[in-house]
Structure formats: C-alpha cells, structure tokens
Amino acid sequence: xxxxxxxxxxxxxxxxxxxxxxxxxxxxxxxxxxxxxxxxxxxxxxxxxxxxxxxxxxxxxxxxxxxxxxxxxxxxxxxxxxxxxxxxxxxxxxxxxxxxxxxxxxxxxxxxxxxxxxxxxxxxxxxxxxxxxxxxxxxxxxxxxxxxxxxxxxxxxxxxxxxxxxxxxxxxxxxxxxxxxxxxxxxxxxxxxxxxxxxxxxxxxxxxxxxxxxxxxxxxxxxxxxxxxxxxxxxxxxxxxxxxxxxxxxxxxxxxxxxxxxxxxxxxxxxxxxxxxxxxxxxxxxxxxxxxxxxxxxxxxxxxxxxxxxxxxxxxxxxxxxxxxxxxxxxxxxxxxxxxxxxxxxxxxxxxxxxxxxxxxxxxxxxxxxxxxxxxxxxxxxxxxxxxxxxxxxxxxxxxxxxxxxxxxxxxxxxxxxxxxxxxxxxxxxxxxxxxxxxxxxxxxxxxxxxxxxxxxxxxxxxxxxxxxxxxxxxxxxxxxxxxxxxxxxxxxxxxxxxxxxxxxxxxxxxxxxxxxxxxxxxxxxxxxxxxxxxxxxxxxxxxxxxxxxxxxxx
Length: 555
Fold this sequence. Notes:
- The protein is an alpha+beta fold.
C-alpha cells in the first residue's frame, strides 16, 4: 500500500472527506516530514489537500513550482501556483458546507484556519504520535552582539501591552530568542529556541521549552525570566483571565486552550523591534559581511581555477566560511546550481542531480552564514567558459534591476511593496519577470528570512532606518539556466529625512556577464563605486589581492 493510500485509510478512520497538510511544524519555523512522506516534496513552503480520489491538489509559490513538478507524481498530484490559485479558492470550488476537511491542530495557525470556516466543515485532529525529541543547547547571546539586555527588551515590549490584557503569548521562536537574548546552538541554520513564552505587563517572562530535562541550558536567564517544560504551558495559560495573541503565529492547539479567555488579537509586539536593528547590530552586520565577503571572494577565485561538482563547490564555500572569526554555521541550505539546475529557484544538489561545473554555462550559488555578530545571504551568478549573448543580456537586465533598488532614495513611510516595482520594471521592458519577492528581511544571528518587512508585491510594512533587507531580482528559463544577483543592505536616514540603502555585502559581480553598452552612465558609476567598496573592504584579507584588483577594476 502506498503512503497516500495509507493516509486515505486514516482519513476513513477519522471520517473526513479531505485532509489538509503543510510543511511547517508546531513552531512554524521547522519542517514537518509528514508532507514529504506523502508526496516527496522537500521544499519549505507547500500545502497539500489529500482527497479520497482524483488528483490531490498541491500548492506552492513561484520559488518551488519547478521543483514541485519534478518531485511530485503527476498521476496522483496536481501542482498549483499559490499566487495564481490559492488553497482557499480551490476549497470553495471543490468542497461544500457539509464536506469535512481535516487538519492538524498543532500545525495550523488561527489565521490560516479562519479562511476555511464558512466554506466547509472543519475537523481538527490532534497528533497523538510521540514527537521525536529535539535536544536544545540554549546559550546567552551576549550584549556585545545584541546591543541591549533582555531585561531592557522585555520592559520595552511589555509597555506596549498597556491595559489590553494581563500578558502576551509569544509563539514565534525567533521573537522569543530575540527578546530573551537566547540562541539554540543545536538548531540547524536558524539558532532559535523551540518553545513559547508568556510576557507579563511587569516585564517578567515565563519561558516554556520543548524537552527541558533533555536540553542543556547554559544561559544566565536573569531574575525576570523563569523557565519550564512546554508541558506546563497549558496550566499557566489557564491561570490567566486575559491574553494577547498574534493569530498569524498562534497554533489552533493553543487557541483550543484559551478559547474561553478574554483574547486580544494583534501583531506580535516583538516583530518591529526585532526588525529595526540597533547600532550594535548594524556594526556587527558590517563586520560579519566583511568576513563573509573574504570567504565568498576566496571561493570565487578557487572556482575560477578549479573544476568541481555542485556538491564539492557547496562544501568548499562552507570551508572558506569556517576560516572566519565568529562563524557558527550556514544560514540556510546552500543553493549550488549549474545550468538548468539554476532555473530551480530553491534547488538543492543531491547525488542524483549533481552536475560537474565545466565547459560553458552559468553557475548560480546562493549561500549564507550565521555569525555571532550577524547573518549573511548572498547570491552570485558566474559565467563558466564562454557565456552566450543571450545570457549576457539577461544577466545585465537583472543587474540593472538590482542597481535600481540598491540606489533608491525614498521618503519615510514608503513600503516594500512600493519599491518592488523599481526592480521589476527593468525586466518588464523585455516582457520577462521572476516568481519570487525582490527582497526579504534578515535577522541578527537569527533567521535569514525575517519579517514583517519585505520588498515584495503587496507588502505594506513601512520601511525604517536600521532594517536589513536583501536585494535579489532574478530571471529563470526552465531547462536552461537561472540568474540571480543578491546583496544584503540596511536602511539609512539621509540628512534631508529621506531614506536610502547602504550595502552590506562586499563581493564582486562577474564582469564577464556585464554588457556595458546596456548600462547608463549612472549604472556604470554605481558598479565602479561598489567594486571600489569591495576592494577596500577585502584587499588586505583575501588570498589573491592581484586577482581581486583585476575583477574590481573600473568598467
């Protein structure tokens, strides 16, 4: 019996007509393997509705469409682009008010489930299987890197509770890690602790972590913080009469506990404080990106002089990062992709897909590092051998889009959604586009993808000085190649009150892919200025200074 047939038998047992699953776990920042087992999808954003027969609809965004079509059996699953048809629309069209739709209480948030409440009969199901233990090594994130004590942060955020409720429930692991200046050294890619927290109006915090007895806690929590096992969360919530929650991040399993309480719904109060980096965090980010620039530039020099496979290159760039001070681990799985693999936006090289990087083609490497003083994320597209005129043209178009955003000057109050068009318009002129956002927020030794701000269609969060964002337009031709150019940058305030971006990433672009004739005078000056910045940042630290000087020379 196949996995999908086994799951349908389970659906019969609990008497539901359909069942909804997605890729997140109970902490919203992990990866649940239930969906992967059912359909084979290994990406980090996908939703599957298992039906009793017919093709089961699977939804993902533009980053994973090509990957999903490659990984899913087309006889059993129908892949949908969530930006063109979302799951809610499919349910409206295919289910009725009397049709039952099951879901796991622990894995879906209040906001996610509310979309379906008036469309079909929702059947919550609690996972009864034992969740595998995930040992945590919880350590303090020093004030020399965070720039503010946990007690100060707690008092500041607690003031925003005001008279609305007795406390705020925090369910976002990144928010909790930021608030308490704690990191989990046992976590992969994003060093956040797994748990929930209750922040009271007086600034005290009760922290509830998974498998407390099984974990190592080496942090000095301070007298404002108490720590418990996650099993104690329910009893603590029951003692409260009123509580603030964020429906975007609160699982339905917790909503079931507090449904009879006085509930105030609002955005997680930590989000905006976390997004706006203080002076210490910005200074740390600058230093981290300089060291990261040394590592990646050394890698690019190595790549130019060696033949390797995608997997070997992935290991080599990690090796160069490990040489740098304060480096802890990669900030996400490295995308090392040659030729047609580069067209898979979130491609992961494997023994089955591993290509030799040789002859003629485009090599795309998207990678990053977690350093104690900052988180990095950079993408470079490199010509291997002799690029075609088409490849040079497409690369230069993407570079023009990248420069347009990087050099933007905009008034206070501008949103990321408004800036997104500045990059895309350069591709639209040629009738092309890319199926992902132009930029995402980035944490400080935390998640490489951090909200609430982003430079993407529809984002309405006002951009503020101190926010760190990526700038990564791209272009992808399935079965041929992919192009993406990404820098991280932070928002700075000018003397006239307007805002602009300061570059953090200090890694050269591939001169062999730039058609100077397609660039304006201002664009050429921007590239020359950027390469001068790269050279000055790295000249005394890279392995081959003369090579750096050559590739950073003026166009």
